[in-house]
Fold Mitotic checkpoint protein with homology with MAD2.
Amino acid sequence: MTSTATANKTEITLKGSVEIVSDFFFTAINSILYQRGIYMPETFKRESKHGLTVLTTTDEGLLRYLSTVQTHVTQWLLAGHVQRLVVVVQGVDSLETLERWQFNVTVEQDNENDQPNKGGGKKVGNKTAKEIHNEIQAIIRQVTASVTFLPLLQEPCTFDLLVYTDKDVEADEQWADSDPCYILNSAEVKLRSFSTSVHKIESMVAYKEADEWEL
């Protein structure tokens, strides 16, 4: 019945949307690090997130780093200051940027007369949890399948996280201005997007093509 369909809708608050986006970032970063072999496979565990079984790190140092980033990103998302998050994969020896995973953030509802309170509790959108999870699952599956189209990394690699924010955001000493780490003559693949009805996340990966490697 129509009443049942209506009951399945989830009232999305700003805070709820931020939690979903922040957790997606954590899951996506972990998936990239695992699939691209940045950390050893044995340092990951299986975990259920967004209706999927995913792999997340057990490395204590990495967990502390990701937790710190996630805390700041959550605060900036609540304030509407985050424009995009970028995962940069670089060669340890060459220091060259080999892959650049970009997640653009758009605030879908930005009515000055409908601003959330400081706790992020004001209702600003609605969408079923299943709809959101299905869209997130599609992106994570694309990250998992990336090994089928991305070139094999030819050297040990490390990663960095870039968070693009509004210029007036004040960050503590843990953050520093960074080069955007663009890849010259890169190939690009646009990935799926997802929306909470409050935030929209559009994703893509740029990479150095195999024939550009120095052999």
Remarks:
- The chain has one domain: 2-212.
- The CA atoms of residues 73 and 148 lie 30 Å apart.
- Helices lie at 2-7, 14-35, 60-78, 129-144.
